[in-house]
Design goal:
GO biological process, one term: DNA restriction-modification system
Distance between the termini: 24 Å
CATH architecture of the largest domain: 3-Layer(aba) Sandwich
Helix content: 40-55%
Number of helices: 7
CATH superfamily of the largest domain: Vaccinia Virus protein VP39
Strand content: 15-25%
Keywords: Methyltransferase, S-adenosyl-L-methionine, Transferase
Enzyme class: transferase
Number of strands: 3
CATH topology of the largest domain: Rossmann fold
Order of helices and strands: EHHEHEHHHH
Protein name: site-specific DNA-methyltransferase (adenine-specific)
Structural class: alpha+beta
CATH class of the largest domain: Alpha Beta
GO molecular function, one term: S-adenosyl-L-methionine binding
Length: about 140
């Protein structure tokens, strides 16, 4: 299993504001996503310095956590962890690469080119992160 990097979070929200909370949808759709469980999970997960997510997937839990300063993200999918790591370290580069791919969102030829390069391991870590995002949207 590969482990992701630790990222900064936000401070805890007062309890009275919890009931009015709106939840952010993750930018990835992921099988087994926890988005629909967020109100219950938020109630059950204690506040603390670090949230450890052994099955980060689309990231619904950590993206919506305001009770933790740091996050340790893990998943068996190395490309998913690479995406989160690259977004933590070089977000502008990942966004720039992703914008190139998403310019041709409905173009089957572009999709095939990106998928073939991804499957052939012809991309550096930043390009691979952007391709993974594109192929999973």
């Amino acid at each position: 299993m590969r482990y992701g990097s630790v990222c900064s979070g936000a401070a805890a929200m007062p309890i009275e504001e919890h009931a009015l909370r709106s939840w952010q949808r993750p930018f990835l759709k992921w099988a087994g996503g926890k988005y629909s469980l967020l109100p219950e999970l938020d109630r059950l997960i204690p506040a603390g310095k670090r949230l450890i997510e052994p099955f980060v997937g689309g990231g619904s839990v950590f993206l919506n956590s305001d009770k933790h300063e740091y996050f340790l993200l893990a998943d068996i999918n190395a490309d998913l962890i690479n995406l989160y790591q690259m977004l933590a370290v070089v977000p502008d580069s990942v966004i720039a690469e992703a914008m190139k791919a998403f310019r041709h969102l409905n173009d089957a030829e572009n999709y095939t080119v990106i998928r073939e390069a991804f499957n052939a391991w012809q991309l550096n870590a930043i390009e691979r992160a952007a391709a993974f995002l594109y192929l999973n949207r």
